[in-house]
Amino acid sequence: SGATALAQQFGINLPSSGNGRIPQFYQDLIFSSELLREIVTQHFSVKSDSGEVEQIDLVTHFEIPAATADVGIQRAIENLGKAIKVSPSIETGIVNLSVTTSDPELSEQVVAAILEGIYTFDLVSRQTQAGAERRFVEDRLAQVQNELREVEDSLKIFLSENRIFTNSPE
Predict the structure, then answer these.
(1) 13-54 pLDDT, tens per residue?
(2) Taken in order 133, 136, 140, 141, is the CA torsion positive or negative?
(3) pTM above 0.70?
(4) How far apart are CA 162 and CA 159, in angstroms?
(5) Is residue 25 a contact partner of residue 17, using CB atoms and an 8 Å limit?
């Protein structure tokens, strides 16, 4: 907020969201390996050719042959990265997100999973930050209370020792 205020003094308007993150942050978050790994390992409901609803992950959907599960997941992450289109707007602070797969319902579910991942990340990071701020304020409050107690005690001692100042050299 300090940089934003300084920029505004020079007539530059910087977009800011409620949490101080710029749209580029969310684009980077969407393409992060942690979020994409979480998405490709989730199970989504899709209709098979016979019309039955089945649960599949994206490794299965992208039909990735792999020697190991980790290689399959990594290839699915690469394919999902290609299927995701993100366009952040610096001017408005809005991030447009789309996912294109061979199944529109699956694409919708993947977008919902990405949004849920972003929401969870924001929630956890805000709770972590709020917890750290709470601990800081509690620690500072305890320090100030101790300082106040010490000053009050010294004032009490001073007043009791200096009640009759004619006998005190100090």
Answers:
(1) 555 445 568 888 889 999 999 999 999 999 998 887 787 888
(2) positive
(3) no
(4) 5
(5) no
